[in-house]
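Weekly sync, protein design subgroup
Attendees: M.S., D.O., the rotation student, P.L. (late)

Item 1: inverse folding check
M.S. brought a backbone from last month's batch and wanted to see whether the design step gives back something sensible before we order anything. D.O. pointed out we never logged the input encoding, so this time it goes straight into the notes. Structure tokens as presented (98 positions):
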């Protein structure tokens, strides 16, 4: 069976610290599983960062009124909402290497 964007996406190793990944519109169109919006958990926030758009990122701080999983859960949910919305419309392409 030939590899598809879906099967290739699951075979790509995620960078260190990435907790979720959203394939962008451009990534789907060109079949590149690395053209994504990644969620990265930091010390006190979750960062949503597009892998190809310069300056396209949003940083969501943990809820200071909560602790543990509840604090990270709120930030992760907010970051995921931003990442999904950006991935659905992102048509940026990676810079060619050659």
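Designed sequence read out in the meeting:
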């Amino acid at each position: 069976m030939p590899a598809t964007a879906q099967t290739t996406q699951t075979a790509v190793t995620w960078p260190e610290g990435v907790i979720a990944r959203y394939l962008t519109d451009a990534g789907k169109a060109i079949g590149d599983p690395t053209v994504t919006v990644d969620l990265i958990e930091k010390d006190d926030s979750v960062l949503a960062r597009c892998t190809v758009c310069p300056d396209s990122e949003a940083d969501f701080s943990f809820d200071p009124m909560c602790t543990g999983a509840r604090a990270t859960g709120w930030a992760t949910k907010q970051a995921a909402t931003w990442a999904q919305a950006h991935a659905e419309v992102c048509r940026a392409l990676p810079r060619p290497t050659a």
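Discussion: Residues 1-8 have pLDDT under 50 and may be disordered. Residues 5-89 form one domain.
Action: P.L. to compare against the previous round before Friday.
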